[in-house]
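Troubleshooting log. The previous structure file for this entry was overwritten by mistake, so regenerating from the original sequence record. Sequence copied from the archived sheet and checked twice against the printout by T.R.
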Amino acid sequence: MNRIHPFVCILFAMFSLTLGVGAQEADPQNTSNAAVANAAAVPAPAAPRPQISDEEFFKRTLTYSVGGQQLYQRMQALLIESEIERRKEMAMEMSWAEVSDLEVDNRVEKNVSDFMDKNPALDFWEQVKSLGYDQESYSQEVARQMQMERLFFPVEPENWPMDLLKEIFGGDEEEGSLWNSMIKDMPTKLIEQREKGEAYAIDAMTMQMFLRPAVFRWMMDNSTIVYPFDGLPDGVCLRVNGKDVNSDDMIVRIEDLISDVDKERASMWVEICKSLKADLAKKGLLLSEAETQAIIDEERLEYVNSYITYEQVALEFQGFPTMELFKQYKQLRFSFRQSLPDPLPEEVMQAHLDKRRQFIGSGQASAQVILFSAKDLTTGAWPKEGAFEGARKRAEVAVQALMDGKPFGQVLLQYSEYPEKTPGANEQMPQPSRGRFGPQMRNPLRQFLGESEYMDFLTGDSIADDLFFNAEEGAVYGPREGAYGYYIYKLISRSEPTTLVDFKENERHAFFVKDDHLSVSFLDYIAEVMSR
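Regenerated output below.
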């Protein structure tokens, strides 16, 4: 998870949104946010796939990176429309699903109040604006969420569609189903509370964590959803039950969110993907989208009984904005993997382990980092123009202070733009402490720096790896451009690996060595192709 602005997750929860990356982070119990984040199982379309222009590829990349949340809101709206149409065809009563303006206003007011209680230093509406909404569009989203709630959980418990809820929540036969443990008896309990004159509304956390995600999964499971990776014609970025979402319309919708940084990174994504696809196809290594999806489906099986989902790994830990971009990345990575020996020779694995033991063996590096952020760390948004230029100029001032003889620690306290504590974050989690990170393993250190597999793919650069493998203790480096802006950093110390890695006898260790070897080799391959 992004340690710099996890309050965005809190904000998404206040919004009652269940579709984007924020919802995935705010709802770790939702084991099917796979569907929410592009992982609905859609049959591969018949060849040939629709050909799209470079301009369309660029628009889709912007939409599925910058505009993922807005796109998923549009998808959810189409799913609700489909459900309403289905009920109308069945002549089902739906008057209890209506939501008044006053009810929406009251919900918005409560969301603002709850948010400010948890984040008194933040401006709620500034956060809303940073996500591409104004007060009117935010109220519209709240109204739609309330309508979805009312469709399945009407205010009066007698109106609940119990047969439908039984299907959605697992029924009597499924062991450990929410139907048995929660839903079946809930209307009776609510009626009892009502008769006692007590409040009988569903608890907001219960709705957010358990009820709404299950309903949304059910709607997706009973719909036909097609994403670009599945094959869509030029001009279309999403199709829900035969209804198209126009790419140009989505660009207009997210226009206020798109910065120069977003455009540059989207262009980089398009260029890298095109170049690698062409090179892999020329070598006869390029897997089809259907072949890639089959491998992804197989990998996902490992997470069936896990506390985390496959999608959480892709979105939270590996940093991809959406599953659409993740699948594009996986197609290239899986294709490249075919160029490596299988099995990987022991001497190759040993050489790689010797080179990367500090990481693979759970070693740590203690570093101090001065950040000059190119993005707004309060909202997580990039300025429309000149973001990195301003950060670079501020970094140069700090460099001059260091050259004038000021101690590194003093310069850090004066100039570093890391916060002391991350707003809204769990106090038990490691905090940025203005950039005095203390001993960290590689992946937590990368999170502090904003690094991820997604950013590795775009830039091929890692400050964390420099600290882990190359930097000299006590030496100062930078300013160096990174994920969030410019960094000046100093390695304090390294600790020896604590895990004795035995890839010959331990399958898990062997997997880690092979996977890291693939990651390093893939980045080297990208650099080689793009340097031509």
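The longest strand covers residues 485-495. Archived copy saved in two places this time.
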